[in-house]
Every structure is written in structure tokens, then in C-alpha cells.
Amino acid sequence: MGTHKRADRQSLPIKLKHFNHKFISCYFLIPSAKTVLMVLFNSFFFFALILGILAVLQGGMNQKIALQWGYPGAVLLSCTGLLFVALLFYILTTAMPSFFSPSLQSRVSLQSYRWWFILPGIMGFFLVFGIPFAISKIGAYQVFVGLIAAQLIAGLFWDFWVESIPLHPLRIIGGLLSFFGAVLVGWVKNDI
After folding, report:
1. Same structural domain for residues 120 and 98?
2. Band (161; pLDDT cuts 50, 70, 90)
């Protein structure tokens, strides 16, 4: 749990003469323009956007497969595809490690195995099964608004407790607004 020095926590040096003294206490809440641009143009931010699109497509496609094959068949087919790609990725990174960054190279060691290493796979099963099932009941939009809101809140706590990233008031407010927004969207019926 190291210290994280990230540019997005900095604030723009605002010329305070433009602000009434009542607003100076809110100075620390204003993100810098540079920070906003760095987040928007960060390649990993775009990667996250692509992952979000893939999550919707994967959930929706699994739901359509489940209509034909049932949920067990859809989950098995999806996880078989996952296993194939994961094995190919493992083989490539092991056979040609010089083509990959150190963070993508395999470092599998049975001595470092812990009982909880299996939990992400089990959670993945519930995502592969649960997302299409929920889409069939309430629609993709409501599922993913709820999913995103839950991920924002869970991500906030994960960053604080596991990654030792301090809680920032804007992150807390944004997470709460997203969560309550998801609750409001959840009240809207699909047949309206």
C-alpha cells in the first residue's frame, strides 16, 4: 500500500480575486482544467470506456443467447470463450515475454497461491450469469446504471481501504449522486 501521487488530485491555481470571500472555502473542491483534460485524454480512461461498452454488449448478447440455449448454456458458452482467450493470452505472454510490458508478463507461482485467488472467477460467473438475467427483467439501461452506481461506491471504498487513496469530497459527492441517480432511474418503468 504505497503512496499515490496523481495529477488529478491537484487544483488549478485560481485567481482568488474573482471570487467572493464566501466561496474561498470551496477552493479545494474545484478540479483544475489540466486535471480534467488529463483524465479525459488518458488512454486508460478510454480503455475503461471501451470496457463499459463491451460489458453492455456482452451482457446483451448473453441474454439473447440465453433465450435460445437457456442461462446455463449461455454462461457455459461465454466462459468457454473466456477460457480460450485467457489460455491464448497466457501462452503468448509466457512464450514471448519480451513483447509485453512487465505488468503483463506471467508470474504464476503455486507457492504464492492463496485461497481467495479463486474468488474473482466465482464473481465473474455471477456477472456472466447475473447481468443477462437482470437485463431480461429490467432492461440494459437500468441494469448498467445500477451497476455503475454500485461500482462507483465500491471503487471509492476499495481505493480508500486497499489502495490507501484518500477520500476526496468530490469523489464522495459524485458517488452518492450516481447512486441516488440509479435509484431514481430504477423507479422508472420500462413501459413508460
Report:
1. yes
2. very high
What is the C-alpha to C-alpha distance for residues 72 and 131, in angstroms, rounded to an integer?
Answer: 13
Length in residues, the chain: 192
pLDDT in tens, 91-133: 999 998 888 888 888 888 888 889 999 999 999 999 999 999 9
Query: What single-letter amino acid sits at 111?
Result: Q
- Select from 37, 39, 30, 38 the least CA-distant residue to 11: 30
The total domain count for the chain is 2
Residues 6+ apart with CB under 8 A from 63: 74, 131, 132, 133, 135, 136
pLDDT higher than threshold 80 for residue 58: yes
Q: What is the residue range of 183's domain?
A: 139-192
Nearest residue to 67 (alpha-carbon basis) of 136, 134, 125: 136
The reply to whether 69 and 80 lie within a common domain is yes
Q: Examine the domain organization and report whether 96 and 122 are in the same domain.
A: yes
Q: Please provide the average confidence, as pLDDT, over all residues in the chain.
A: 79
- DSSP string over the chain: ------GGG------GGGS-GGGGGGGGG---HHHHHHHHT-HHHHHHHHHHHHHHHHHHHHHHHHHHHHHHHHHHHHHHHHHHHHHHHHHHHHH-GGGS-GGGS----GGG--GGGGHHHHHHHHHHHHHHHHHHHH-HHHHHHHHHHHHHHHHHHHHHHTS-PPP-HHHHHHHHHHHHHHHHHHHS-TT-
